Every structure is written in structure tokens, then in C-alpha cells.
Amino acid sequence: MPELNILEAVRLGMDEEMERDERVMVLGEDVGKKGGVFGATEGLFAKYGAKRVLDTPLTEAMIAGAAAGAAIYGLRPIAEMQFADFVYPAFNQIVSEISRMRYRSNGTFGLPMVIRMPYGGGVHGALYHSQSNEAYFTSTVGLKVVAPGTPADAKGLLKAAVRDPDPVMFFEHKKTYRLFKAEVPDGDTVVPIGKADVARPGTHLSIFCYGLMRTFALEAAETLAREDGIEAEVVDLRSLRPLDTEAILASVEKTSRALVVHEANRFGGFGAEVAALIAEEGFEHLDAPVTRLAGPEVPGVPFHHNLEDWFMISPAKIVDAARALAAY
Known about the structure:
Layout: E1 3-4, H1 6-20, E2 24-28, H2 44-48, E3 53-55, H3 60-72, E4 76-80, H4 91-97, H5 101-104, E5 114-119, H6 134-138, E6 144-146, H7 151-163, E7 168-173, E8 182-183, E9 197-200, E10 205-209, H8 212-228, E11 232-236, E12 239-241, H9 245-255, E13 258-265, H10 270-281, E14 291-295, H11 305-311, H12 315-326
Parallel strand pairs: 2-3, 2-4, 4-5, 5-7, 6-7, 10-11, 10-13, 13-14
Antiparallel strand pairs: 1-8, 6-12, 9-11
Helix pairs in contact: 1-7, 8-12, 9-10
């Protein structure tokens, strides 16, 4: 199996799907000859041409709307929002139109389309290039939302998203793009949407995470095991909607403690949904309150590296929260 980083895995997933199915196309800002601001679409324009790799104006509403129209007419578009922070002009298209199309048409029109969303901080992107806005979309019925944290999942979930009959928001944490390399299965390997991954088994507490937080949670779990004898189970949710409730509850039943970790603001963040699920359906197994570790209540990620570090979740912060939970 080749070793790829997450950016390479995303590119490979798109390439394989475009080669497999001529209906698959890519559109977005600078995705053509430039290959995308991060290089995610590099080489696709030369291979598939301008009819299947479309450079668009800086108009996110048009990108989402054109992708929806293409999907209605039988194509399978992959639309890129250059940064997740830029998606808001397309909010009406996504939330009011794309998410509701199957329902409002009584099943006549599905929208088999993917919207790729580079998100997250820790890259010195400051206020408008660091947002984690997944909760806006997980709260919208009709959208599927995934956030892979490994190269294998990035490729496999993207292939699954392209083939899905309904719209999928595909969140890619920018800091993970070139953070590490790992083995990616050769060939047509698809990771099903809606299934969590137990990245590390444990017995003392469960850490629920996704995206970059998977990497940080695994690092924290190794520290906890080495320094404290605490065996933390790391559950990578990777699919936020639909959510693998069975895997979450099975882990809590096993460990009796739950720590939910995400980068976005704590209040109203996606972790609240996970915490509520555990409180409602796993209460009898809990030996301590469900705990959330999330970003602070400030409007955005600061630019200055000291303030950015203060904002961001880190392995050390996860270790501290897990130790407090284990001692409860």
C-alpha cells in the first residue's frame, strides 16, 4: 500500500472517481490549471480538461448552485469551497435548497454532490481562514457530513461521498493535509459513511473526536498510558451525520467515562450532540459526567502564534482533561 498524506489521498480519491465515472466533475475557485490553493486538484485539469475541471468566479453561491444544477441533470459534481470560512455566501443554496431538494421534490430529484470544505486552525490563518463551522451543517436535515482524520479515510470517505445519492459536506482539516503520511489501500476501497472507527482501544475512558483531533487524541492517549496507566479508548467519529450512535454507546458502556473533543466553540458545538446522546441513552453506564473539551468562546482563531496556541486544542490539553475525568 502506498504511503500518502491526507492531501494526496483526497487528490487520489477524486482522480479515481473521475476516471471511474465520466459524470464526476470538479468545480471551484482556482481548481483548474493552478490545482487549487492547497494543491488538492493538481493535475486533474491536464488529465480531464476544462469541461470536467471548472474554474469558477469568486462566487460561492454560484459554486454551490451550479453544482446542485449539475447534479439534478445527472452529473456528480465535487464543489470546492476554497476555505470553509468562505461558505457563508452559499449558505442559502446549501441549507435552503440543496439539503431540501429530495424532500421538496417528493424524491424526484436527488443531489449526488460533494462540497469539499478545508477547515480548522493551527495554520496561522487568523480569523477568516481558520474556522471550524461543521455544526451549522450537522444541524441541517438532508445533509451528510464527514470529517476524516487519516489518509485512508480521506480517500475512502471521499469515494463514498461521490457515490452517495444525496449531498455530502466533506470537511478536511487544513493542518492535517501534510502533517503525516500513512498507508492507503490500493484500488477501489470505499469507507462507508456513518461508521466510526475505534482508533485505539481502552478501558478507563472514551475520547470522542474527529479530524485533526484524532491525531491529538492518540498522542494524548499514549501519554496517559505511559505516565498515568490510564488506558483511553479513542473513537474517531469521522462521520458526523449520520452519527454512529451504536459505536459511541458501546464505548461508553465499556469505559464508563466520556470526553468529547472538538476544535470549534464549545457552546452549541457538535460535541453537545454527542454529549446529549450519551446522557440520554448511556446514562446508566456513566461513572462521571460527560465532559467536553472545545475551543474558547471567542469569535475566531487569533493570528498571533501565542494566542492561536491558546485557542487551539492540543494533546496536552486533552491529557489534562482526561486526567481530571479519570480522577472523578
